[in-house]
Design brief:
By secondary structure, the protein is an alpha/beta fold. The protein has a single domain, classed as Alpha-Beta Barrel (TIM Barrel), CATH 3.20.20. About 30% of the residues lie in helices and about 15% in strands. It has twelve helices and 15 strands. Helix 1 packs parallel to helix 2 and helix 2 crosses helix 3. The longest helix has 18 residues. The protein is globular, with a radius of gyration of 19 Å.
Length: about 375
């Protein structure tokens, strides 16, 4: 399988093109520091060419689930060192995904019960599930112009911590309706200062974070995750193609390690897709309605580095997009929850185990580190 062949980046050689996608599993302690079991979890999956950690908060003012990960204190840093050490001992390569949730924070989790911050005071749809029901996202406070540099500095502090912990690189989450994407899309960024208005100004937040991170650890140790079709929380953009063409070109010019794009193969009856993808048996949605254009060729055209795709792929569809050059690698989420030896199962065409959805955020080993391997 082409999917199982090595992939060489500017600074790394990945043993295969199978990537562990970032998956929030809520196994940190009350101070958002990784617990020892997290080292076991990631080490179990170290046969992937690349592991990307769960989204990790860069600031105490970016907070959702109580036991979601953070990397902005010395104590968190010491705990992350253990995780990285376990992965490296198992022969793995691991990047840390860094994010700020912006308007998708919950005041109850923020210092002093503060309002979340965002480019503009526009609330996200939805909220955080709690034992008492859904806690809606509040209307955020628009960042003052002179505050934005401080938020960028929080990202850069987290990059320094990631380097200190021994991570092989970082992934910036400009995705899933989080703060960087809130700046990028014109439906959530109504600013008229240096960080809003034109496409170039809306992209400035992302690019300044990426530039500062590159100065700290080098551009070839930085990936960026994008979700051009994400609409779940009401985020919108009036010209998706223009936005992501510009972003792709700018990130390519910076020589980053990779782009990681949530871009599935779409419905097999979508006439906008290449025929070989429409003919796959598995139906994979790329957007809420499945009728948006397949943008992987856009990223391939404008970004010169490795392209990782994500979006409910299975072994067959992943092999297809890697073999035909649509992508260089494919990341897997839910499959990796219940199949720590996913690479071996792909190699042997073995049956895949199904995940226990009730344990996704339950804490402890059950549904986390207790899934058997083929050799267990």
């Amino acid at each position: 399988m082409r999917l199982l062949t090595p992939l060489k980046t500017e600074s790394l050689t990945l043993r295969n093109r199978v990537v562990l996608a970032p998956l929030v599993r809520a196994r940190c302690d009350d101070e958002r520091a990784p617990t020892p079991i997290m080292g076991e979890y990631y080490a179990q999956r170290a046969s992937a060419g690349l592991l990307i950690t769960e989204g990790t908060h860069v600031s105490p003012y970016s907070a959702t689930r109580k036991t979601a990960a953070g990397h902005h204190t010395d104590r968190q840093n010491e705990a992350w060192k253990h995780v990285v050490s376990r992965v490296h001992e198992a022969g793995g390569v691991i990047f840390q995904q860094l994010y700020h949730v912006g308007r998708k924070a919950i005041s109850e989790s923020l210092p002093g019960g503060a309002l979340p911050v965002a480019p503009s005071a526009i609330a996200a749809n939805g909220g955080i599930p709690t034992p008492n029901g859904l806690l809606p996202f509040p209307t955020p406070r628009a960042l003052e112009s002179d505050e934005i540099r401080g938020v960028i500095a929080e990202f850069h502090k987290a990059v320094r911590y990631a380097a200190k912990a021994g991570f092989d690189g970082v992934e910036l989450a400009a995705s899933s309706g989080f703060l960087i994407e809130q700046f990028l899309k014109d439906g959530t960024n109504l600013r008229t200062d240096a960080y809003g208005g034109t496409l170039e100004k809306r992209a400035r937040f992302l690019l300044e974070i990426a530039d500062g991170a590159a100065e700290i650890i080098g551009p070839d140790r930085i990936g960026v995750r994008l979700t051009p079709h994400f609409r779940a929380d009401g985020i919108e953009d009036s010209d998706t193609i223009a936005t992501y063409t510009y972003v792709s070109k700018e990130l390519s010019r910076r020589g980053l390690a990779y782009l990681h794009v949530q871009e599935g193969t779409g419905r097999d009856d979508n006439p906008r897709l290449p025929l070989h993808l429409r003919q796959l048996d598995r139906k994979i949605m790329i957007g809420p309605s499945g009728d948006e254009p397949f943008l992987a060729p856009l990223f391939r055209q404008h970004f010169s580095g490795p392209l990782i795709l994500n979006g409910n792929y299975d072994a067959r569809s992943a092999e297809q997009v890697v073999a035909d050059g649509t992508a260089d690698a494919v990341s897997f989420g839910r499959m990796y929850i219940s199949n720590p030896d996913l690479v071996d199962r792909f190699r042997l065409n073995a049956q895949l185990a199904e995940p226990d959805t009730a344990t996704y955020y339950s804490g402890g080993a059950k549904g986390y580190t207790d899934y058997p391997t083929l050799t267990a």
